[in-house]
Amino acid sequence: MMRPYSIDSRSIGTGDAAFVIAEVGINHCGDRERAIEMCRVAHECGADAVKFQTFSAEEFCGDPAQLFTYRSQGREVTESLLDMFERHELSKPDWIAIERACREIGITFFSTPQNVSDLELLLELDVPAIKIGSDDFTNLPLIEAYSRAGLPLILSSGMSNLAEVHSALDAAGWFEGGEVALLLCTSMYPTPPEEVHLARLTTLQNAFPGLVTGFSDHTIGSQAAAMATGLGAKIFEKHFTLDRGLPGPDHWFSESPEDLAAWIEAIRTAERIVGQPYVRAAAGENGMKTLARRSVVALFDIVEGEELGPHNIGARRPGGGLPPSFLSSITGLRALRSLPRGSVLSFGDFGR
Questions:
Q1: Burial label, 65 (beta-carbon count in 10 A; 0-12, 13-18, 19+)
Q2: Angle, alpha carbons 25-30-32 (nearest 5°)
């Protein structure tokens, strides 16, 4: 049983629908209107939330001379990491407008801050949760600072081992009862199937009973997310873009709106397939149960007072009457009335 956990009044845990996040990241290209349009598209695709990355490039990047090579528009691009992030930075008025638009659209807005100053901005916007990326998973002082905000935390665990997971959960306050969720993540873009290791979800759930787990999906397509649903993942996240041909480091591996919608539908379909844990006949099986199961029936015309046994009763379709397990109990008893051939026996038809 998962511990109570919620985002924006949405309960997320045992028996609840998965919480699906459309990751905008920096795919807005520093354009407020594109960011708002992505929020609209994410809502139309069925996402519960949109998530951004909130940062000040100068605080985020320590070395102006650091170069970054990435794939964009079908070719490799090398540029200053600082320049790239400055181009994708949004202002405080931008964030205010985006958050307001999300409220009007009806989709949950939150973000990943890179520093405490970014967190302070997000708190001004009254975000309902804080996401911590895999890059800061071992930045325990920062996680501790974020946890003091008192909001639900989501941690991505890319590039980490089990000991580091324990330390991050400790810093986030999970062992003291804090609302913390952990996303399985592989920090490879895109992630090849052999590097996903969804079996780690079970390891994490067993190591930390009650922990809400999820999947930050960097694979191509929806198969991995559907499988993670079957393994108990309750929060899902995936990058998307309005156009894979836009300039920037993340567009080429991000999902198109059409693929994002298909990914979300795959999760919802997987949820329906997983269903409930109770071992009982499905409601839709009742007709087949009557048709296919067998009942105790009269094999021949039976007269009142005749002894019952294998010579005149047996198990035949349809179901709905006494099951075949009653045959041995009925054998040796007598018919209390005449029973035409094919009659389905009931308790009032026999006695001593």
A1: exposed
A2: 95
According to DSSP, residue 47 is labeled: -
Confidence of residue 338 (pLDDT cuts 50, 70, 90): very high
> What is the torsional sign of CA 89, 93, 99, 102?
negative
Q: Which domains does the chain show, CATH number per domain?
A: 14-274 (3.20.20.70), 283-351 (3.90.1210.10)
Judged by DSSP in three states, 346 sits in coil
Question: Which residue from 174, 166, 165 is spatially nearest to 146, judged by alpha carbons?
Answer: 174
Residue range 21-48, pLDDT digits in tens: 999 999 999 999 999 999 999 999 999 9
Q: Cα angle vertex 280, ends 279, 281, to 5°?
A: 140
Question: Which residues pair with residue 184 across a beta bridge?
Answer: 215
> Is 57 in contact with 82 (CB distance < 8 Å)?
yes
Tokens of 198: 């969804």
Q: What number of CA atoms fall less than 13 Å from residue 293's CA on the CB side?
A: 17
Interatomic CA distance for residues 204 and 189, integer angstroms: 23
- The residue written with tokens 């199961």 in the block is 293
Task: Specify the DSSP element, H or E, that contains 213.
Answer: strand 212-216
Residues 6+ apart with CB under 8 A from 347: 322
Half-sphere exposure of 149 (CA within 13 A, CB side): 24
Count of H helices and E strands in the chain?
12, 16
pLDDT in tens, 61-111: 878 889 999 999 999 999 999 999 999 999 999 999 999 999 999 999 999
**Residue owning tokens 């801050």:** 113
Contacts of 242 (CB under 8 A, 6+ apart): 27, 34, 37, 38, 41, 257
Burial label, 96 (beta-carbon count in 10 A; 0-12, 13-18, 19+): middle
Query: Six-digit token pair at 281?
Result: 């006949």
Confidence of residue 347 (pLDDT cuts 50, 70, 90): very high
- How crowded is the C-beta side of 324, counted as CA atoms within 13 Å? 10
DSSP-derived secondary structure letter, 40? H
Q: In this structure, is the dihedral angle defined by the CA atoms of residues 332, 338, 340 and 343, taken in order, positive or negative? A: negative
